[in-house]
Amino acid sequence: MKRILFIEDERTLQKTFKDLLEKESFEMISAFDGKEGLSLIKTEKPDLILLDLILPGVDGFEVLKRIKVDEEIKEIPIIILTNLEDMADINRALELGATTYLVKANYSPKEVLEKIKKALK
Fold it and tell me: Which of 7, 63, 75, 97 is deepest in the core (most CB within 10 A)?
């Protein structure tokens, strides 16, 4: 069973994705801030990370930076799922090593699920 870590502070969105992913036989692990997310990446070794950029404490850009310099976890695919749609933010996230960048308003949960499946192939 593939494990997905969702680092997102919005609990409603966490629940929506947990329900959707579990129906598709994925296991979802939740983190509600960047610090907790970084800790769970190390202990849980997810197959993919869904990451918001606007997070309390350690923001998503910093989480991305820390993942990509860590030999143990740097190969984990990371899908950014955020409301930030400025080209500078998109370019920065991709330069830092994000696999895919999705703006929440432009994708339904089912479309995000398809992106997750594609990234895991």
Answer: 7
Q: What is the pLDDT of residue 13?
A: 96
Binned at pLDDT 50, 70 and 90, residue 121 comes out as confident
Q: Is the pTM of this model over 0.70?
A: yes
Ordered strands of the 100-103 beta sheet: 27-31, 3-7, 48-51, 78-82, 100-103
What does the alpha-carbon distance between residue 47 and residue 42 come to, in Å, rounded to a whole number? 12
Interatomic CA distance for residues 37 and 4, integer angstroms: 11
Among 84, 73, 3, smallest CA distance to 38 is for 73
What integer is the mean pLDDT of 29-55? 97
Residue 107 phi/psi, 5° resolution? -135, 135
Nearest-angstrom CA–CA distance, 109 and 13: 9
